[in-house]
Design brief:
Layout (H helix, E strand, L loop, with lengths): L1 H19 L6 E7 L4 H16 L3 E7 L3 H13 L6 E5 L3 H6 L9 E2 L1 H5 L4 E2 L2 E2 L7 H7 E2 L2 E2 L2 E6 L1 E6 H6 L9 H12 L9 E2 L4 H10 L6 H5 L12 H15 L12 H9 L5 E5 L3 H11 L3 E5 L14 E8 L4 H14 L2 H11 L6 H10 L1 H4 L5 H7 L5 H4 L6 H17 L4 H23 L2
Parallel strand pairs: 1-2, 1-3, 11-12
Antiparallel strand pairs: 3-14, 4-14, 5-6, 7-8, 9-14, 10-12, 10-13
């Protein structure tokens, strides 16, 4: 009886105590990001630090296998009335994020800059928007303001196996398509030639980069920045020039295609295994490539992505993703979310994120911190992506395209490339067909979301 009596008393206390302590409970800030690897662990470590500094909040970070998974989950959660505070979404889907609405017709996301409302700090956390590097600011500043908070930002750069280059007697890393083609001719003529000269994933992002390099917009209306994009230019002269060169590299046995679209893993492994001398890849893995090449016994040096030497080089554009603030949050949750967004990319965190991955430091202050620490002197590969973005001329081409249904349009481009490489379809014919299909996808999208 005594034991039963004590259990009843304990049960009553458990029911009463939470109600009395309700005001002292931390406000949950749920964040969904599109990483499930070490990057998720890194983010969770930062969240734990934030929670210690600001115990009135409890940031909870959950990982998803892709950007689309995180976005679809957010849509579903919004329908159920329980969305996260912050959603991680990639740059190519910016237009879709802007167009997304809830069942009630309200925008799914709220402009980060509008929510900050001119404040320079939020509960003591400095606002970082004014210090975001120009390449990211140019991409994500829409209608005069940041609609989302930049985080993981990258560019497409090249990695060179210097041991192979030296064995071939090539003194300088190729900077143009023409120089690269000439270098590959020499490398593949060696008795100890690798299996091929170069590789990169068949991903539309590299196509988009090559368009920007040549100063060509991917879509009309200033790449969708002056007004909603209603037409894409997949068959432009710049696009044809790039695919003509790519196909020639493939036909000559210089470029190796793994046979899998968007094959980041296969192309990466080919370079680390020294099956190719060059790899064009995302700068987001600069730290990993540098370390893995050393473990594999060779030196990898990063450089700008080669460009068409027959036209003026205009510049490369960014890749990566941002953090979107979900709409309709209560005031306390929104305040905590804004605090975390800005704290998450403060100079120390942005610098550490860069060191850990290779994503470019998102603010100028972070770059300055890395320079002061001597990081770039010890790790010159890590400076290349930032330098490449800084070298770009301001233009609609280098700002990057805003296109509805961009993910599906990217798939059309990669399919066209595969047709050109594997089935020997004429470049112009393949790009014309792809352009027609992509414009139909864009038209269908604009019928649903266009103003």
């Amino acid at each position: 009886m005594r034991k039963l009596f004590l259990m009843l008393i304990l049960a009553l206390l458990v029911m009463v105590i939470p109600a009395a302590a309700q005001d002292d409970e931390a406000t949950d800030i749920v964040v969904w990001i599109a990483f499930t690897d070490g990057r998720l662990d890194w983010a969770r470590e930062r969240a734990a630090e934030f929670n210690e500094l600001y115990p009135e909040y409890n940031v909870i970070i959950e990982g998803y296998g892709s950007y689309n998974e995180a976005f679809d989950a957010t849509l579903l959660a919004a329908e159920q009335g329980n969305p996260p505070a912050i959603t991680h979404f990639f740059e190519a889907a910016t237009q879709e994020a802007r167009d997304a609405v809830t069942d009630s017709g309200e925008p799914l996301f709220k402009s980060v800059e509008a929510a900050i409302a001119g404040r320079t700090e939020i509960n003591g956390v400095p606002v970082i928007l004014d210090d975001v590097i120009s390449a990211a600011a140019n991409y994500y500043t829409l209608d005069g303001e940041f609609t989302s908070m930049p985080w993981n930002t990258s560019s497409a750069i090249m990695f060179t196996n210097m041991d192979i280059l030296e064995a071939a007697g090539i003194e300088e890393i190729p900077a143009t398509w023409q120089e690269l083609e000439a270098a590959c001719e020499v490398i593949m003529a060696m008795e100890s030639a690798p299996e091929a000269c170069i590789t990169w994933p068949n991903h539309s992002w590299f196509f988009e980069q090559s368009m920007a390099q040549q100063g060509a917009d991917l879509a009309n209306n200033g790449n969708g920045r002056e007004a909603r994009a209603t037409e894409v230019f997949i068959n432009s002269d710049a696009a044809v020039a790039y695919l003509d060169w790519w196909k020639r590299m493939y036909d000559n046995g210089y470029y190796v295609y793994t046979g899998v679209v968007r094959d980041w893993t296969g192309t990466y492994n080919a370079f680390i295994a020294q099956q190719v001398a060059f790899l064009i890849y995302s700068s987001s893995d600069t730290t990993l490539i540098t370390n893995d090449s050393q473990e594999a016994g060779f030196t990898a040096v990063a450089s700008f992505m080669p460009h068409n030497g027959e036209v003026e080089y205009v510049g490369n554009l960014i890749g990566g993703a941002t953090l979107w603030l979900n709409n309709g949050l209560d005031e306390e949750t929104e305040t905590g979310a804004l605090m975390f967004m800005n704290w998450f990319s403060n100079p120390q965190n942005a610098a550490d994120w860069h060191k850990f991955t290779g994503y470019v430091p998102i603010t100028n202050a972070a770059i300055e911190l890395l320079e002061e620490e001597g990081w770039y002197e010890e790790n010159p590969n890590s400076r290349v992506a930032s330098a490449q973005l800084e070298a770009a001329q301001p233009s609609s081409a280098t700002a990057g395209a805003l296109i509805g249904n961009f993910v599906a349009i990217r798939d059309v481009i990669t399919s066209a490339v595969e047709e050109i490489l594997l089935n020997d379809v004429d470049v112009v014919e393949a790009l014309n067909a792809a352009n027609e299909e992509a414009n139909q996808l864009l038209s269908d999208y604009n019928e649903l979301y266009g103003e």
